[in-house]
Amino acid sequence: MVAERKTGSCLCGLVRVEAVIDASSITACHCGQCRRWTGGGPYFSTGVSDVRIDGEDQIAIFAASEWGERGYCRSCGTTLFWRMKGKPLNNLAAGLFDDQSGLAVRQEIFVDRRPHWQSPWDGASQSTEAEEYAKLEAALKGSAT
Fold first, then answer.
1. What does pTM read for this prediction?
2. Dist. CA 140–CA 26, nearest whole Å
């Protein structure tokens, strides 16, 4: 899939997004926070760039950890994004987009936290909690210098 500009919105439509989808891939995060945040399944996100948001005043931010924050619509509660504090927005919830053609789960993270009742996606790369925290630690060290 070639990078493509797509549009979407939250459930109530007060937050509208437009972004370039960087690849055809969706990441499924199975960490405990994401499963609670989405009501049981993983957080499905897709990498984005050149993000434009209408209705930013409707976005609430929840400081989920020392390093991460979650954005959601303050009116309808729709999951919008997860990002590193102080970093640019580089992913959005895949379900926001009106046209999801060409997207597929290509990566699963925190797979050792995946509920037993949920099967892995065929062909998706897999990484564990320990592997993801090692990446996070490296990223945090890199931003401290």
1. 0.89
2. 23
Alpha-carbon distances, residue 14 vs 36, 46, 59, 70, 143 (angstroms): 23, 21, 9, 17, 34
As a dihedral over the C-alpha atoms of residue 71, residue 17, residue 35, residue 132, rounded to 10 degrees, the angle is -80
Residue whose structure tokens are 């789960």:
105
Chain length of the chain: 145
- Extract the tokens encoding 37: 């945040």
Q: Which residues contact 53 (CB under 8 A, 6 or more apart)?
A: 15, 16, 17, 18, 59
pLDDT in tens, 73-122: 999 999 999 999 989 999 999 999 999 988 899 999 999 999 999 999 99
